[in-house]
Design goal:
The protein has 538 residues and is α+β, with helices and mostly antiparallel strands. It has helices at residues 10-17, 66-74, 91-100, 113-125, 136-152, 179-185, 192-200, 203-209, 255-293, 298-305, 330-347, 373-391, 409-425, 439-453, 460-472, 476-485, 490-497, 501-515, 522-531; strands spanning 8-9, 22-26, 34-35, 37-41, 53-61, 79-83, 103-107, 154-160, 165-168, 214-216, 227-234, 237-246, 314-319, 352-356, 359-364, 396-399, 432-434. It is flat, with a radius of gyration of 32 Å.
Length: 538
């Protein structure tokens, strides 16, 4: 068991457990609440938990877990985990959890309680005494820089692989700091003449290929003092560099040895930093997907990212499916996602982009109250234009309705999907649309979906006509639909079909003879126009 002082945040616990095992249903106090332990609770036993614990309700599902949830909340539990009976069964539990101020997690149906118990306890056991929680790696790196400065008698900075300063030691004497270090800390590029010298001396090449310390001479004319440098490495990969600048006194005798040790310690920090960043991205994607799908409420994502859930929001959808529903290869999907991310970030700082097969969605939270659909359509058109120019892809885009807050985001996503479904089904060219733009196409698309799902409400005569064409390689159904689409204009329909008008008249007579349809009756014409738009396979 972890020591009594050990704790991790709910956010870190979720990262340790993974979205494949656990979903967040409610987090009224946010994801930074502390988890201090794990308790197993069987509803048949007297309820007992300690403040700050994660309570695993192992003997009840869905609404049957309500008493255990209330009892755990009364005892001060930080979070409660249950199994649900099925989709949409967590509403009552989520409402109770929100009222009680306790986080509610759900274990997926295939998950095992012993697995969660072991993973959660391992996450707590991994916490060293006094571990300050999320963000500690930055403090640890500054502490490491200061310790290295003491051991080397120099002035230390730690950079990542892109030469961005991550941490540096303190210096009480400003005169000790040379221009290169000052510029680096402020985010400026060092003097080009000196950087050219470093390249000329092979310093960067050495750091890229070796884990040994390299010395760099001073350059008084450029105001640059002597330095030692060593690469921070993990296997063959360079993660960053530690630089030690000589101050007003020479570097210590054991500087190189101290620097080697510091590089190895720094490597652990940077590897952990990369892992936690990756886990944080995964958690964000999981919470975003849950919000879009309506399985997770708005509060976990809002607290995770610091969003105001009460401000307007909207969803943009993008698709490059074919009429057969085939999506692009994974590499292309990644390129499109990156393109969308870059363009939308320039327009809205808080935008989030995610893939939910086979489509890509953009969540636009915290929109200004003055935003309108035309503006959002313009943003979407910039993206589809860029996709056509740079990737050669006919991207379709849709603008979901602007909703009053994050809680209504699933409604905006559904509207976005309705529009994309209609654009795909009607074969509309790649473009961006909102619901008012193609209201008729959307409704017709949904009627066709209804006809596809319910053969009993179709006209069997039209079904027989399509089957006759299939057996005899005929075109009577196609010809009838073209005639109806042309409002009964035989010449227009014949032109569309590339046949002589008399040929079309013959096909229409044959269709009426075979089926008994009476094309003089409006109801039969209307039903034929709809049903003949169904894919032939149906």
């Amino acid at each position: 068991m972890p020591s009594p002082a050990a704790s991790i945040s709910l956010r870190q616990l979720l990262m340790a457990l993974g979205d494949s095992l656990v979903e967040v249903q409610s987090a009224p106090a946010g994801l930074d609440v502390e988890i201090r332990g794990v308790a197993l609770l069987d509803p048949e036993d007297p309820p007992s938990s300690l403040p700050g614990e994660l309570v695993l309700v192992i003997g009840a599902r869905g609404r049957a877990a309500l008493p255990a949830l209330r009892a755990a909340a009364r005892d001060g539990a930080a979070a409660v985990m249950v199994k649900l009976d099925g989709p949409g069964q967590g509403a009552a539990l989520s409402e109770t959890a929100a009222e009680a101020g306790v986080a509610l997690l759900s274990l997926r149906a295939e998950g095992r309680w012993e697995q969660v118990n072991a993973l959660a306890r391992a996450a707590l056991d991994d916490v060293p005494p006094g571990y300050p929680g999320a963000g500690a790696e930055e403090g640890d790196l500054f502490s490491l820089a200061q310790t290295t400065a003491v051991l080397t008698n120099g002035i230390v900075s730690i950079e990542d692989a892109a030469n961005r300063v991550l941490a540096y030691s303190r210096s009480t004497d400003a005169d000790e700091i040379d221009d290169l270090r000052r510029r680096s800390i402020l985010g400026w590029q060092g003097p080009e003449a000196y950087l050219a010298k470093l390249r000329e001396w092979g310093v960067f090449q050495h750091l890229h290929s070796s884990d040994q310390v390299i010395g760099i001479d001073s350059h008084p004319k450029l105001g640059i003092r002597g330095r030692l440098a060593v690469a921070i490495r993990s296997g063959d990969r360079q993660l960053g560099t530690i630089w030690v600048q000589e101050g007003s006194t020479p570097l210590s005798e054991h500087s190189e040895q101290a620097l080697l040790g510091a590089a190895r310690v720094a490597a652990h920090h940077l590897v952990r930093r990369r892992r936690e960043l990756s886990e944080n991205v995964t958690l964000t994607r999981t919470l975003l997907a849950g919000l879009l799908e309506g399985s997770t409420g708005p509060q976990p994502l809002a607290t995770h990212l610091g969003f105001d859930a009460t401000l307007p929001a909207a969803v943009l959808g993008f698709s490059y499916e074919t009429a057969e529903g085939v999506a692009a290869p994974e590499l292309t999907r990644t390129e499109v996602t990156n393109l969308i991310s870059v363009h939308i970030a320039a327009r809205h700082r808080s935008a989030l982009v995610t893939q939910l097969d086979p489509r890509i969605y953009v969540l636009l939270p915290q929109l200004p109250g003055s935003i309108d659909t035309d503006t959002l359509r313009g943003w979407g058109e910039e993206i589809t234009d860029a996709a056509r120019r740079h990737l050669g892809l006919p991207l379709r885009g849709s603008v979901g309705c602007v909703v009053s807050g994050l809680g209504d985001v699933p409604e905006s996503r559904r509207e976005s999907d309705r529009i994309l479904d209609a654009m795909l089904g009607a074969g509309l060219p790649a473009a961006v649309a909102s619901l008012p733009d193609i209201q008729a196409e959307v409704l017709v698309s949904e009627i066709l979906t209804l006809l596809s799902a319910h053969p009993e409400i179709r006209d069997p005569r039209l079904t027989a006509l399509v089957a006759h064409d299939s057996r005899h390689q005929g075109r009577m159904a196609e010809s009838l639909l073209a005639y109806l689409n042309a409002f009964g204009d035989v010449r227009e329909a014949a032109t569309q079909l590339h046949v002589h008008p008399n040929t079309l008249r013959y096909r229409l007579r044959r269709a009426e003879e075979l089926t008994g349809l009476d094309l003089s009756r409006p109801d039969q014409r209307l039903l034929a126009m709809l049903q003949l738009r169904l894919p032939p396979t149906t």
